[in-house]
Amino acid sequence: MTKGFTLLAIGQKEYGYWARNMAASIKANSDVQIQLIHDGKATKHLHFDEPFGNQYLFDTITDIPADLYTDNGHFSPGKAKIHLYDLMAFDHSIYLDVDGCCIGDVSGLFDICTKPIVSHVWGYGTLQDKTFGDLMYWADAEPLWQHFHIPADARLPFLNTSFISVRKGNEAEMIYRTAQQCLDNPMPLAAMRELWGKGNQPDELYFNTAMALLNYEPHIEGFDPIYFRPYREYGAAVPLDTIKQQHYFIGLWGGQRFNHQSVERYYDGVMRNVWSQVGQTNVHKTGNLMRKKFVETN
Fold first, then answer.
1. pLDDT tens digits, residue range 8-32?
2. Alpha carbon 202 to chain centroid, angstroms
3. Could you write out the DSSP letters of every residue in 148-200?
């Protein structure tokens, strides 16, 4: 069985820089394969044969067709993520959003993630919940159940799709195909509780719905691969050594005002150390990268 990490860089050039940093942080910690799926635009300033020590940053380069990341001519990264299954190069791929960095050895993740699909899951909800709060804020239960005809007794998982482990096979493919079918009949924006940016369809909503329809639970108990900390969480920073004991990655979700300042500080420090291993300077820091996040510009 082939195994590796899959990164997606589409849209702004900053996403190419995010991907370069993520790949370097993975290679600095583990001897693993990395696939880069890209649109040519985000990566036009990258060198695909760039080395990291005695390795390449990217082992496999894959072009994504424009119809998989556009919807009626509009840029749609959520659609891209929902259509990645056929583009993944490995029998067992771990997809990562590129807006983060690796903070430890990740080679063992393939042995941990034994289900067809495993993701970072905040929790689960049911039709009886009036609202899901911050655990899943794209839509409330009743309009979601009505629109997609979700069974009344189903449980809806709340994914953070910054991490998706995919072991290719019938069950994983069915989840992706169902999510694609749901996106073909999208939730009306007027029926959503929160919008992604200025009104884009979030892939998480459709993965959540597909898994509820298929009665699939993507979590592993106690498994939180990515450390997130929202800006609104007050108090002292959690020491980085403590974070490393419990998580494999640091994630910078959302826009400029979404993350606790300690997370951005840790990211820049980790990447400074990563690039210093090969005698380079970290030239792509959070201050510039965060300003061009999709949620800020779309």
1. 999 999 999 999 999 999 999 999 9
2. 11
3. HT--TT--EEEEEEEEEEEE-SHHHHHHHHHHHHHHHSPPPGGG-SS-BTTTB
